[in-house]
Design brief:
The complex is a heterodimer of chains A (about 350) and B (about 200). Chain A has about 350 residues and is mainly α. In chain A, about 70% of the residues lie in helices and about 0% in strands. Chain A is built from 13 helices and no strands. The chains are: A mainly alpha (about 350), B mainly alpha (about 200).
Chain lengths: ~350, ~200
């Protein structure tokens, strides 16, 4: 019995607590990201944004959530029921499980696996299935077109994202996320790899189907695309999944280019602030750029989107792999950052 | 060890069951979805074997790219699958033959292990000893250092196939107007810069 407790029960409880410690703040962040989005865009548009529910409208996300929760779930008669229901669950689950490998501070990570960055890349490449399944199972032309657009778009931008991740890995010489952050002690990779950081960020916009690449849900032509047939909690899961994915992609940008939990300068006033707070601040900065871009850029046309992905980003990121690889080999960068 | 065994049985049962569903599902989209499930659980089996790099690459390449294209094509195609099933008996001998060959190859490998127990260890031994380097690094050394020419040759074959596919399908249609972004941007009247007061409109 004692062996059962020490061998199985306590580790299981401990893992459960760790999961809760990641997921509860994450869901709160998702709720308040929606609020922040409405406030930031309102400020850019010279409006007020939500300001009625609670002080400064702070209870607005909770009111929205309750509204969605109490609505009726409608499944269209022509829909493929099983796939229709699995799709939002898959989207939301994938947005959550990726956080298992994200180091929020020095050693503060649930699973410090050796292939952390590949795990993140694999999970983000699965995100397309939720949308594709939703589009197909809805049995509606708008949803289907949205799903197809999304699949093509995410596959295209994943290629250049992969190459940029490779160029960062070449500098670090490890696939472990903590190693990647620790390699940025001297200088954040955003400075030596600035063009790659910009391309990576733009690709994450496309990967999360955000403006200006939100063609899968282009409301003017597809009346909100793949999720048009969803209502109530099924829609809420898509919505939460999209925002959780935004936070995840910002976390990836932070880890790869903005030095993760490291302070900007390794001197006194900066080092007093603990690592997780730096990490959260950097994610918030990336998310602000997401919202800023949404408020200021017009939507891309579909052929322009494909042109940007395949004819601009892909050659540049391919060249980046060759150039960064050459520089790393010539100047023995890997031993410098170790 | 109990947890590992449970995980193994879970992954392998789901893999086999979804593989059966791939060939028995009536709806082709469901077939592709079951194929993805099979890939995913095989990746889980790789993780249990300690080959986490292969597991991740399986998910990235097969699930993230190949199966998406499969799904894309299957969703777009309007095939009458009952008509396709009518040819089942016609293709049965060929399919059976291929299955038999694969089964025989497996039998040869397993038989080899039983006859000469030392052979398996030699075949599975990584070129650098596994305790000196990380398994991702060992794989990298094997592919990019020891067998670089074979790797490059394989890449060349794939490149030629890709170019061939593009050449076969590419055609220039007359009368199609294309956007030239550099010309558009260079046009005098395309962009107008205004100095805006903060908090004001145009």
């Amino acid at each position: 019995m004692a062996e059962f407790w020490t061998g199985y029960a306590w580790p299981a409880i401990w893992i459960g607590l760790q999961v809760v410690a990641i997921i509860i703040p994450l869901l709160l962040c998702v709720a308040y990201l929606v609020y922040a989005e409405r406030k930031v865009i309102a400020a850019i548009h010279l409006r007020r944004g939500p300001n009625v529910v609670g002080p400064y409208g702070l209870l607005q996300p909770i009111a929205d959530g309750l509204k969605l929760f109490f609505k009726e779930t409608v499944i269209p008669t022509g829909a493929n029921r099983g796939v229709f229901i699995i799709a939002p669950v898959l989207t939301f689950t994938l947005a959550l499980i990726a956080w298992a490998v994200i180091p929020v501070g020095d050693g503060l990570v649930i699973a410090d696996i050796n292939v952390g960055i590949l795990y993140l890349f694999a999970i983000s490449s699965l995100g397309v299935y939720g949308i594709l399944m939703a589009g197909w199972a809805s049995n509606s032309k708008y949803a289907f077109l949205g799903g197809l657009r999304s699949a093509a778009q995410m596959v295209s931008y994943e290629v250049s994202m992969g190459f940029i991740i490779i160029s960062v890995l070449l500098v670090v010489g490890s696939l472990n996320l903590s190693d990647i952050v620790n390699a940025q002690r001297h200088v954040w990779f955003v400075i030596p790899l600035f063009p790659m950081a910009v391309i990576f960020f733009v690709s994450t916009l496309a990967e999360t189907n955000r403006h200006p690449f939100d063609l899968p849900e282009a409301e003017a032509e597809l009346v909100s695309g793949y999720n048009v047939e969803y209502s109530s909690m099924a829609f809420a899961l898509f919505f939460l999944g999209e925002y959780a994915n935004m936070i995840l992609m910002s976390a990836m940008t932070t880890i790869l280019f903005l030095g993760g939990w490291l302070p900007p300068f390794n001197v006194a006033p900066f080092t007093w602030i603990p690592g997780p707070i730096w990490f959260a601040a950097k994610i918030a900065f990336c998310l602000f750029i997401f919202l800023w871009v949404r408020a200021t850029f017009p939507r891309y046309r579909y052929d322009q989107l494909m042109r940007l992905g395949w004819k601009v980003f892909l050659p540049i990121s391919l060249a980046a792999v060759v150039i960064v690889g050459g520089v790393v080999l010539a100047f023995d960068i890997q031993s410098l950052v170790k | 060890m109990i947890i590992q065994s449970l995980a193994f049985y879970l992954f392998s049962i789901v893999t086999v069951a979804s593989a059966v569903m791939v060939i028995s599902a009536r709806n082709p989209v469901h077939s592709v979805l079951f194929l993805i499930l099979a890939f995913f659980n095989s990746a889980g089996l790789f993780v249990l074997l300690g080959a986490e790099f292969l597991a991740m690459i399986l998910v990235v390449v097969y699930v993230g790219a190949v199966a998406v294209l499969f799904m894309f094509v299957v969703m777009m195609l309007d095939i009458n699958f009952t008509a396709l099933r009518e040819g089942f008996l016609q293709y049965l001998p060929l399919g059976g033959l291929i299955g038999l060959v694969l089964l025989l190859e497996l039998a040869v490998i397993l038989g080899g292990w039983i006859i000469a127990p030392g052979a398996a260890e030699r075949a599975a031994a990584p070129t650098p000893a596994i305790d000196s380097v990380h398994n991702t690094e060992a794989l990298g050394q094997l592919i990019y250092t020891n067998y670089i020419y074979f790797f490059q040759a394989a890449g060349m074959v794939l490149l030629v196939a890709m170019i061939g596919a593009i050449v076969l399908t590419h055609r220039t249609r007359p009368g199609v107007r294309k956007q030239k972004i550099s010309e558009q941007v260079a046009r005098e009247d395309s962009i107008e810069m205004r100095d805006m007061p903060s908090g004001g409109g145009i």
